[in-house]
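Thread: Newbie trying to understand structure tokens

Hi all, I'm a second-year student working on a class project, and my supervisor (Dr. K.) asked me to get a predicted structure for one chain before our next meeting. I've only ever worked with sequences, so writing a 3D structure as a token string is new to me. If someone could post the tokens and maybe explain what I'm looking at, I'd be very grateful. Here's the chain:
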Amino acid sequence: MALAAGDRDAFVEAEMAEREAAALPPFGRLAAIILSSENAAAVEKVAADLAQAIPNAERLEVYGPADAPLALVRGRRRKRLLVRADRDVNLQAFLRAWLARVKVPASVRLTVDVDPYSFL
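---
Reply by user tm_fold:
Sure, no problem. This is what the structure looks like when written as tokens:
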């Protein structure tokens, strides 16, 4: 409503309150893991392997794998996993430990974006 009314300050205040309640940046951390390949089966396999290899950790959640919002870009199939963590969790260490558990073939590109600006 505030955005439609052109009230920037009210919009920012409401957005920050929602982000704080959901522990989203800047009150929490996010990381997007995006897999892509021309071989859809290879992307599915790596996504499933990553889902099986998630380490146990407190104060973080992993969502996915799911099709990325743009599931097909330039002939490449895309899957995404999203990690939401509390602000004081060492997200990079978690990601390193997790990704070290899975062998990613050369045909699959894996990209990690910490605190992404866009989810496309």
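A couple of things are worth pointing out once you decode it. The chain has one domain: 29-114. The mean pLDDT is 89. Feel free to ask follow-ups in this thread.
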